[in-house]
Amino acid sequence: xxxxxxxxxxxxxxxxxxxxxxxxxxxxxxxxxxxxxxxxxxxxxxxxxxxxxxxxxxxxxxxxxxxxxxxxxxxxxxxxxxxxxxxxxxxxxxxxxxxxxxxxxxxxxxxxxxxxxxxxxxxxxxxxxxxxxxxxxxxxxxxxxxxxxxxxxxxxxxxxxxxxxxxxxxxxxxxxxxxxxxxxxxxxxxxxxxxxxxxxxxxxxxxxxxxxxxxxxxxxxxxxxxxxxxxxxxxxxxxxxxxxxxxxxxxxxxxxxxxxxxxxxxxxxxxxxxxxxxxxxxxxxxxxxxxxxxxxxxxxxxxxxxxxxxxxxxxxxxxxxxxxxxxxxxxxxxxxxxxxxxxxxxxxxxxxxxxxxxxxxxxxxxxxxxxxxxxxxxxxxxxxxxxxxxxxxxxxxxxxxxxxxxxxxxxxxxxxxxxxxxxxxxxxxxxxxxxxxxxxxxxxxxxxxxxxxxxxxxxxxxxxxxxxxxxxxxxxxxxxxxxxxxxxxxxxxxxxxxxxxxxxxxxxxxxxxxxxxxxxxxxxxxxxxxxxxxxxxxxxxxxxxxxxxxxxxxxxxxxxxxxxxxxxxxxxxxxxxxxxxxxxxxxxxxxxxxxxxxxxxxxxxxxxxxxxxxxxxxxxxxxxxxxxxxxxxxxxxxxxxxxxxxxxxxxxxxxxxxxxxxxxxxxxxxxxxxxxxxxxxxxxxxxxxxxxxxxxxxxxxxxxxxxxxxxxxxxxxxxxxxxxxxxxxxxxxxxxxxxxxxxxxxxxxxxxxxxxxxxxxxxxxxxxxxxxxxxxxxxxxxxxx
Length: 785
Known about the structure:
Pfam family, one: EFR3_ARM
Shape: elongated
Region (Disordered): 175-198
Largest sheet: 2 strands, antiparallel
Helix content: 55-70%
Structural class: mainly alpha
Family: Belongs to the EFR3 family.
Number of helices: 33
Protein name: Protein EFR3 homolog B isoform X4
């Protein structure tokens, strides 16, 4: 090594001797810029740059800017030669000279000089010496901080981006070399103490902060590729951190571009592992919340559409047990718990993003999600078969979970516009489905909608509390919009609550949800009419448990008794009618003594107290409708309505019930109508409804509509084109016919026929004819409007 070092020094001395000799003989023949460049290099590189000669070179460059490109080329030539000969001292001097010239010269010719400068920086970065790499990096940092008057589009920085990225991932054996960097005059003392991670974060923030609209995608795509290549989606901590930096660094109006990139990346990875998809969804959740505070643009429904599509794919993967892997090209066996984790991540993301949206957008999102829930109907049949049923059930549960997340914390001043009939009809129809989990989700969603003052947590447990003032309920007067909403939808809501309480698969959670729904309706949406109807509804629930026509289990019957006691205890204290409160209190006290299994404290305990003697209950432990009607009627409530038992109207929605098919439901309605009609003796027996009958009815109805449409067209055409005399004659004939019919009616009214039973005996034994009232007469069809 000593011999080699001596040989190198000897060669350098010979070179300098020859150069000095040549310069001594022919110095006047060398260009001046070369002589000035040569003079800045000392005999010994340890002496550093010759400052006086450097000042001469700088003055010459400023005086003759056209020579800058030649100066740069000559310096570049010397640096490349010194690098190849390992003269690193002279390399440092050359770079220092370049830096000073670059900082001092600002003119049109600087672009030509920059090309030589970048060429020398690239040469240093290509070296395997860490010191040279750091030297080139610091020079590039100085160059990057120079403000140029006009951008230079002809330059290419691809090599530098690639090389700097490679250096960031250095795998050098020496840890100090891997993380060391020399001090730079552009950096303060505090910044010198930054770790590589902190420095890279600052660089990323500065880069994204300057990104324009058209460059956002170019900045985001490499980040996602990096996360893909290094499997950094799965721990998701690093990925979430990266995208938080991105979202807080870019301009707010560009946030939706990041969301679009993530959505596209999620779709592109739809066949990747569930852990990867879950990581992307988690990142999307964090990014979407930040973007919503700025500008989301047109991507609101796009976010939910993509999430719901991924949710359906995950359900299919879980049912089939495998999917085609996008990376290996083969079939990958799925892990059920990983798919479940992904599904929960999607649902969480749905809720967290929706929570940042304004009310009108949340309403649109809820309508969108509800439209995706597969519900049985005549127009949209569900998938059949065992696999189809499983797919339908899982899809219903997952979408309703998502809807529950979106509805949590939902508040609106006008529920009539926020919850249109198209949404409410579909949601309430799900309460008639066989699956108890689905029914519970629907009840919880309704609770979220109605609870606008945060009272629902105060009704999580059912109890007969003696003083409800300790609950500190937030109660406002029912607004006009709420009154209109209840007038339109109250009967439909009562009906579904009534039918939901009769399901034999109900558990404790279902009755707690029903109690909470009743209580919140009384607080949020109740006026006097609503209070009366809710009391009638709860008394009807008590009647369901008492009569037990549906053969409910013992627990369900006791739960209905307990539910009624808890609600009537609450509503009696809300109405503050003393006689009403006294009656409810007396019945509760009697139950505490003789039938604790009819109170919520006994039924909804960890170990329920039940009794089989429910068919021999005394009247003193039941809430009596006549008594309640009497005490509330005396306080101004509608006693007639209170004394009328609640009976829900049957509708076509019963086709969703597990106990009735479509044909059975329609047949049942026909029977109910005939049973309740005063003329049932004159009616024919209810016709059995079959598929052929329905098909024929549909075809006939279409034909009747076509005939009616044609008849109307002819009438309009006749009155438009027929002569006046013809129209007058036609109307005169009809007027004559109408007059004759009216004369018949008057004659019947003046001389009524005898009653169907002949004669009835008056008080004094004299026969007396009985006339039929006018409102019971049968008029001809012509006279009936």
